[in-house]
């Protein structure tokens, strides 16, 4: 049995920037050589690239962590460290990328070769050559590299097809697909024969072509996860036209019209926008006894539930086994596709705001809290980033960091909160004494 993995949760981490270097120029005939430490190289990005050769997310089942390389450290003679190569992660067409924490859609990857940076690498730290001033011509200051972006992502694969076949199990969807395309889905005389989406290309007699997806059968409660549940419903979101296949022979003992209502109810419960897609009703198994009579009854019930001003869905009686009515059905489907635009999968509220990798000017630069052991704890993206990029092996760098904290108003804020001389202050795992 082939396995089909259509969701995966992964972690990505971009490369850290290389550390800047502290070095001095010492050459025989060059007096007062000065600083000569170069900058670190840029960390590698993590980039998703669409590969049309991939069909599933199976690769992400066994490899869930993706980490790009860090940039090289700065070197002497003012030379920059080498930037790291980007990490390319190949994904199949139709992959939606969400932020696992917020649930927001980051990007929808549908075109072959499409690229998207999901995690940006950190910039390299500056070497001491960057900090030389007339007042301090020989600085012993350098920066550590900026940490790379790290995030947890949820990948969802939604099959790319123009037309989706929906219906209860064993109504003949797989047989229909095998007849109208060269696809060879597994077909059996039992429910849920199809457990993975099958794709095939159709070419009509008039030369039109389109992709059809035979999707696992629905049952009542699928929108709440019953049966194959949302494993199926996820894949119909990209389709533009729905072929609603109904067993008009009622061979399973169910009423065809009740089947029709039940499937539409599941589509609506899962996503109201699925009902915007035009439907063609495919009355299958018309070669069976009682099918003609059942079709007449079906049309009566359908007409009774539509106003006279509403357009009734098209109904095409067919038999997949005898190939009766297939050409007419396919021509009508191609014609409807020509008139049907693409549907937006996501509202603006579903999408993540345009990525911004600097600091939010409106966000506070730091926050102060108190730990159980009475230690003052400083946190905040801007402050923590400054801390991470400070080289604590150099006294001048530590003094520069303390000046930056003072400039951000940390000293005044601690004093206002009641901090006294000698109190412990913690940033991450680093502790120091507060000096009033």
Task: Chart the SSEs and their pairings.
Elements lengths: L6 E7 L32 E5 L8 H4 L2 E3 L19 E5 L3 E5 L5 E5 L5 E5 L30 E8 L5 E4 L6 H8 L17 E6 L5 E6 L15 H4 L7 E7 L8 H15 L8 E6 L6 H14 L9 E4 L8 H14 L27 E4 L5 E4 L1 H8 L6 H14 L1 H7 L7 E4 L2 E4 L3
Parallel strand pairs: 1-3, 2-4, 9-11, 9-12, 12-13, 13-14, 16-17
Antiparallel strand pairs: 1-8, 2-7, 5-6, 5-8, 10-11, 15-16, 17-18
Any descriptors?
elongated; six-stranded mixed sheet; alpha/beta; single chain; 9 helices; five-stranded mixed sheet; 436 residues
Number of helices: 9
Give the % helix: 10-25%
Which structural class do you get from the secondary structure elements? alpha/beta
Shape: elongated
**Largest sheet entry:** 6 strands, mixed
Question: What percent of residues are in strands?
Answer: 15-25%
What integer value in Å does the Rg equal? 32 Å
What is the chain-wise order of helices and strands? EEHEEEEEEEHEEHEHEHEHEEHHHEE
Mean of residue pLDDT values: 87
What is the spatial order of strands in the main beta sheet?
10-11-9-12-13-14
Spans of at least 5 consecutive residues with low confidence:
188-194, 221-229, 355-359
**How widely separated are the two ends?**
71 Å
Number of strands: 18
Brief summary of the model shown:
The protein has helices spanning 59-62, 173-180, 230-233, 256-270, 291-304, 326-339, 381-388, 395-408, 410-416, and strands spanning 7-13, 46-50, 65-67, 87-91, 95-99, 105-109, 115-119, 150-157, 163-166, 198-203, 209-214, 241-247, 279-284, 314-317, 367-370, 376-379, 424-427, 430-433. The protein has 436 residues and is an alpha/beta fold.
């Amino acid at each position: 049995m082939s396995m089909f993995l259509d969701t995966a949760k992964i972690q990505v981490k971009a490369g850290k920037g290389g550390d800047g270097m502290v070095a001095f120029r010492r050459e025989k005939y060059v007096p007062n050589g000065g600083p000569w430490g170069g900058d670190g190289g840029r960390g590698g990005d993590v980039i998703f690239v669409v590969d049309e050769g991939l069909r599933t997310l199976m690769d992400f089942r066994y490899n869930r962590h993706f980490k790009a390389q860090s940039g090289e450290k700065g070197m002497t003679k003012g030379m920059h460290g080498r930037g790291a190569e980007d990490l390319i992660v190949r994904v199949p067409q139709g992959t939606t990328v969400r932020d696992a924490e917020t649930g927001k859609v980051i990007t929808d990857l549908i075109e072959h070769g499409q690229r998207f940076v999901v995690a940006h690498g950190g910039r390299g730290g500056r070497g001491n050559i960057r900090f030389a001033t007339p007042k301090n011509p020989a600085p012993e200051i350098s920066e550590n590299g900026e940490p790379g972006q790290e995030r947890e992502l949820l990948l969802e694969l939604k099959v790319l097809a123009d037309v989706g076949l929906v219906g209860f199990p064993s109504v003949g969807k797989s047989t229909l697909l095998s007849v109208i395309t060269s696809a060879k889905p597994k077909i059996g005389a039992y429910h849920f024969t199809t457990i993975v989406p099958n794709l095939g290309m159709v070419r009509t007699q008039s030369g039109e072509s389109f992709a059809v997806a035979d999707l696992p059968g629905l049952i009542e409660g699928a929108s709440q996860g019953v049966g194959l549940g949302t494993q199926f419903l996820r894949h119909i979101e990209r389709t533009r036209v729905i072929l609603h296949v109904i067993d008009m022979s009622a061979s399973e003992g169910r009423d065809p019209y009740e089947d029709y209502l039940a499937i539409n109810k599941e589509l609506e419960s899962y996503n109201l926008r699925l009902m915007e897609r035009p439907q063609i009703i495919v009355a299958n198994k018309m070669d069976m006894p009682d099918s003609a009579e059942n079709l007449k009854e079906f049309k009566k019930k359908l007409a009774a539930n539509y106003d006279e001003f509403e357009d009734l869905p098209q109904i095409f009686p067919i038999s997949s086994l005898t190939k009766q009515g297939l050409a007419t059905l396919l021509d009508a489907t191609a014609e409807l596709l020509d008139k049907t635009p693409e549907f937006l999968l996501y509202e603006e509220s579903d999408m993540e705001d345009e990525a911004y990798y600097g600091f939010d000017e409106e966000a506070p630069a730091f926050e102060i809290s108190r730990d159980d052991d009475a230690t003052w704890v400083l946190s905040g993206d801007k402050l923590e980033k400054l801390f991470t990029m400070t080289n604590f092996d150099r006294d001048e760098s530590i003094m520069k960091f303390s000046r930056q904290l003072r400039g951000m108003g940390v000293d005044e804020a601690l004093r206002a909160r009641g901090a006294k001389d000698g109190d412990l202050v913690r940033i991450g795992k680093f502790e120091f004494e507060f000096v009033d």
